[in-house]
Design goal:
single chain, five-stranded mixed β-sheet, 4 helices, alpha+beta, 143 residues, Aminopeptidase, 31% helix
């Protein structure tokens, strides 16, 4: 397994990472993803890819460092996806460990993420990774 932090403009964001990301974010088109990259990178959005031994992208994470009054500094994971062909193979664990290293190096108090209430398999994974439910996330659709 090889984990790579992809820099803005890296063609692997579209060629390799986007197909894996779309397994979770079905609405993402290439055009929409490029729009999100353009705006999100100015907000600190970064992406990390996991490649298997054959050089195929099997994991993707979107993340950013966030300053707030609650934790002061945290690493927030926007997206964490393991390809359906590679689940239960340690990809998610390796990706979370890599992100945790980034968080520690940046002096973060925590690594946080939100997970949809319907994603019970993901929740079991997060509990195995020693993560805790610390808050409710509320949403009011505006469109």
């Amino acid at each position: 397994m090889k984990i790579i932090d992809l820099e803005p403009g890296d063609p692997r964001l579209i060629e390799d990472l986007l197909p894996v990301l779309r397994e979770l974010r079905l609405h993402l088109t290439e055009e929409l993803f490029l729009t999100i990259l353009a705006e999100g990178q100015g907000q600190g959005l970064r992406f990390t890819a996991v490649y298997d031994e054959a050089g195929v992208c099997v994991g993707a994470a979107g993340w950013r460092l966030v300053a707030n009054t609650h934790l002061v500094r945290k690493l927030y994971v926007d997206d964490l996806v393991t390809s359906s062909t590679a689940r239960s193979g340690g990809v998610g664990h390796a990706l979370l460990a890599h992100l945790e290293e980034h968080a520690r190096a940046a002096g973060c108090a925590a690594l946080t993420l939100d997970s949809g209430t319907q994603r019970s398999d993901a929740h079991r994974f997060y509990f195995r990774e020693r993560m805790a439910v610390t808050a409710f996330s509320f949403e009011k659709p505006l469109v």
